[in-house]
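step=encode ok
step=design start
structure_in=
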């Protein structure tokens, strides 16, 4: 009896841990997390090895679910008593509450873990990399590819295997510059949420933030595809090939915008502490700046937050960036005694 009680208690504890891990996964994957939540997530992940194991379990089931047909995931949907859309990519964008989406994800784990047709290679837990605020991190992958991870960014990597059909990584949040080792037999694939980028050997920049994803090619060519088209606008493109100096953005649904040309020296300029923007909301620029510098800056009103910014700024010179903002736009700076800064629309 005691053994049975212990087993039941352990099962309950494991389920609760999976629920928590799933909630974190939904929050981070759907880019709902703010700067403080991302920091809390990192602390939760490092606090206990069981936390990391549970998160790896949820993330692995998510990656494996890409290889199941829709009926498998519908079974998970029924198990979670959800009437919402249930495709893999729609799971986090179906308008479900955080708890409902997390429950559906845990149910998907139950279904995926019992499927006999998923290759064993995908069972391997991914390796997670995180760059702290203000630090650019350089990573060499097992296949020889080089990755530069931007401050405050997170990357998940499926361990490389010569027998695998793909070399797979996932940009969880932020930005990364990839210099991919050439291997025609095993393509390199980057999951950036609403889009997937596939190459055999080239250099390109990927950004994932504020519900959008963007890809810019520095060398060679890449193929960019929507992760799923079930909930995308009919006018969007399914996929597009990019060459050197070309860039494309995608919204949360995976609908691709038009391809634009970008000066080569601006591709991945953030690696040289240069932040480049074209018609970007001021809110996004400030969010980026806070990943590069440990500063307490906020925007006091929606009018200021929606100001469109175009230009290149030095992320190492916060005072210079703020001065430029007040000179270029109708914005005033309020500095508090505690050092915090608020940007407000100029009356």
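sequence_out=
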């Amino acid at each position: 009896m005691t053994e049975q009680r212990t087993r039941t208690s352990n099962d309950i504890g494991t389920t609760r841990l999976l629920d928590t891990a799933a909630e974190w996964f939904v929050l981070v994957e759907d880019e709902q997390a703010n700067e403080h939540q991302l920091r809390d997530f990192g602390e939760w992940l490092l606090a206990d090895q069981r936390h990391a194991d549970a998160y790896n379990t949820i993330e692995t089931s998510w990656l494996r679910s890409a290889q199941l047909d829709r009926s498998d995931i519908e079974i998970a949907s029924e198990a979670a008593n959800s009437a919402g859309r249930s495709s893999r990519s729609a799971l986090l964008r179906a308008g479900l509450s955080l708890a409902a989406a997390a429950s559906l994800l845990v149910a998907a784990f139950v279904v995926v873990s019992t499927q006999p047709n998923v290759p064993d290679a995908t069972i391997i837990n991914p390796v997670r990399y995180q760059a702290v605020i203000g630090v650019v991190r350089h990573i060499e992958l097992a296949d020889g590819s080089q990755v530069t991870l931007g401050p405050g960014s997170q990357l998940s990597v499926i361990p490389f295997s010569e027998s695998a059909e793909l070399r797979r990584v996932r940009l969880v949040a932020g930005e990364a510059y990839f210099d991919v080792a050439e291997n025609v037999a095993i393509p390199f694939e980057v999951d950036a949420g609403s889009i997937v980028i596939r190459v055999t050997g080239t250099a390109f920049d990927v950004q994932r933030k504020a519900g959008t994803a963007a890809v810019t090619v520095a060398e060679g060519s890449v193929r960019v595809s929507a992760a799923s088209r079930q909930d995308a606008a009919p006018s969007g493109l399914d996929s597009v090939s990019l060459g050197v100096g070309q860039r494309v953005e995608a919204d949360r649904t995976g609908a691709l915008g038009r391809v634009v040309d970008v000066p080569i020296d601006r591709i991945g300029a953030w690696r040289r502490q240069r932040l480049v923007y074209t018609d970007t909301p001021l809110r996004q620029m400030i969010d980026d700046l806070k990943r590069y510098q440990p500063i307490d800056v906020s925007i006091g009103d929606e009018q200021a937050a929606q100001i469109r910014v175009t230009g290149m700024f030095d992320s190492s010179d916060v005072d210079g960036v703020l001065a430029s903002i007040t000179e270029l736009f109708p914005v005033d700076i309020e500095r508090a005694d505690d050092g915090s800064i608020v940007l407000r629309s100029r009356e």
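step=design ok
step=annotate ok -> DSSP finds eight helices and 18 strands in the chain.
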